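Budget justification, computational time. The allocation requested in the original proposal was used primarily to generate C-alpha cells for proteins on the priority list. As evidence of use, we reproduce two of the resulting records. The first is shown immediately below.
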Amino acid sequence: MRFLIAVAALLALLPFGLPPYAMTLLTEALILGLFAMSLDLMVGYARLISFGHAAAYGFGAYASGNFLLHTSMPLPCAVLLAGLLGGLVAIGVGWVCTQATGVSFSMLTLAYAQLLYAVAFKWTPVTGASDGLAGIPRNPGPFGVTWWSTKAGFYYLTLACLLGTFVFCRELVRSPFGAVLRGIRENEAKTIALGYNTRRYKIAIVAISFGFAGLAGALYAPFAGFANTELLFWLLSGQVLIMVIVGGAGTLIGPVLGAVFFLYMQQQLSSYTDSWALFFGVIFVLFVLFMPEGIWGLILSRFGKKAA
C-alpha cells in the first residue's frame, strides 16, 4: 500500500515538471498500461490467452466517441459508460469463447475481433467506416466545467481510471474469486473436482477484462480525438500481449511497466528506422529467453522477492 501511494503521488506531481510533449506521451502510456493490465487478468491469472483483446479496446473507443459526438454527455460519464457497455457485451463473447479451451479459445477471441473489425468497415453511420470518427470532443460537465479538457485535467482523469482499476483488480485477485482463477490457471481439472463451475468464472473474468479494456479505449478516443478501425486490428492485440509478457504476467503492475517500455522503445526505434517492429521483436525474444518473469520480476529479484 505504501508503494502504491508513493507511485500515485509521484505520478500526480509529474505534470508540474514535464513539458507538453512528454505529458502527451505519459498520458498515452497510462492508457496503454490500463489496456495491458486488463489483459493480464485473463493471461496472468486464468491463463486465458486472448488474441482479440483489441476488440474491447476499439469498442470502447467507438462507444465513447459516439457518446461525445452525438450527445452532451460529460467526458467522464461517456468514458465510464463505454467501459461498462464493453463489459456487458463481453458476457456474450465470453459465453461463446469459453466453450473452447487452449488455442481454440484464443482463435475464437481472434475471430470475434476480426468480425468486429469487418463490421466497423461497413457500419458507416456509427463507425465512419474506413475514415473513422474524427473531431471527438472532450465534452464539458454541468455548469460548464471544462477542467478535464485541458492536457493536465485529462491526464488526471486517466490516472484516476488507472489507479482505480489497479486497486479493484488487486483486491479481486486476492479474493476467493482470484483464488479460483489461480486454480484454473494451475489445474482446471482439480478445480472442477473441488466443485467449482470454472466456466462461469472464466466468463466473468472475460467480461471484467474486456470492460477495463473498453475503458482504456474509451479514454483513447477523446485523447487522440479520433477512433478508427486500426484500434480493432489484430496487430494491436498482439502488441498488448507483448506488453503483458515483457512487463510480467500475473503481477498487474508489470503490464503497466511493459506498456511504458513498449511505447518508449517504439518512440526511440522509430526515430532511427521504419522497421522498428523488427528490432523490438528481437528485444521481445530476448525477454522471453532470458527474463521470462518480465521487467517487474527483474525488479523484485533485485530486492530478494519473488514475483507474484
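The second record produced under the same allocation is shown here.
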Amino acid sequence: MIPTGSFKPIIKLQLPATMGSDLAGVVVDIGSRVTRFKVGDAVFASTFDLGVGALAEYAAVPERVAALKPDKLDFVQAASIPMVGLTSWQALVERAQLQPGQKVFVPAGAGGIGSFAIQLAKLFGAKVATTTSTANVEFVRQLGADEVIDYKKQEFEALLRDYDVVLATLRGGELEKSLQVVGRGSKIVSLIGPPDAAFARNRGMNFLMTFVFGLLSGKIIRLAKRRKASYSFLFVRPDGQQLSKIGDHLAASRLHPVVDKIFPFTQAKEGLAYLEQGRARGKVVVQLVNSAGERVAL
C-alpha cells in the first residue's frame, strides 16, 4: 500500500525511500546513550512510520523500538513477527482490552495478521471465529480458530452473532457486513480504515485533516452506534517493550511465527509482488547474507 501511494496523506516519505518496516539482525554499532543493547546482540524490531526502511543491508533503529531476538527463533522467524505481532497486540490487548471468554472475529485468518491475531486471542482466553478459503480451513483450525467460515461457500454475517471484538482487516463492504455480527458494547478495531478524527488528533494533524477524517469515518461510526458498538481506527506504532512481551510468549512456545515464503535479497521486488497478490499464508520474508556471512532477515 505504501509504494502505491495509499498512505501518502498519512505517511511522509523522503524519496527515494527504502521500503519495509520489519527486521531482524545483529547490532553492529550503538549510539553513545544506548544502554539496552550492545554490539553483537541479535535483535528484532519494527520501524514502521519512522522513515527507516528495512529492505537494506543496514538500518539505524531507535533503541525504544527494538527487542532482543528470542533465542528459539532464527532470523527469518523473528523478522516475520514485529508488524503482525504489534498490530495484533495493540488491537486486541491495548485497544479492545480483550478478556477471557469473549468472542473475537478475525477475518482472513490465514494471512499475516490473521494467523498471529488468532493465536494471540486464544492465548488471552477468547473464542475466535475467522474466514478463509477452502484450502486453508484446516490450517486456521490448527492455529486455534474455534469457528471457521469458508468464504467461498458461506457468508460470515449469516452465521456469527454477538461477538465482542471485530478486528477489521478487509476492505470494501466487509467492514459494514461485520457490524451484523457484533453485540451490545462490542468494539470494532479497523486496520484498513477509514481513519477517524481521533487518529488525526493523535498525529497532530491540522483542523482540515481532522475534519476530513471525521467525515470519512462518520458513516461507520454511526452504524456502529446503532448496534451499541464502538468503532476506532488503529495505526500500529513501533514499541520495543511490547515486542519483548511478545518475544517472551514466542520463547515459551505460546505463540508461533508463520512464514509462507522466503525470498533472497536480490529478489526483494518479486517478494513484494507476491505479497501484493494477497494470498500469502502467514508472512513473506526477504533474507540476505551480510559481509560476515551471517544470515539476517527483513
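A brief technical remark on that second record: The first strand starts at residue 22 and ends at 26.
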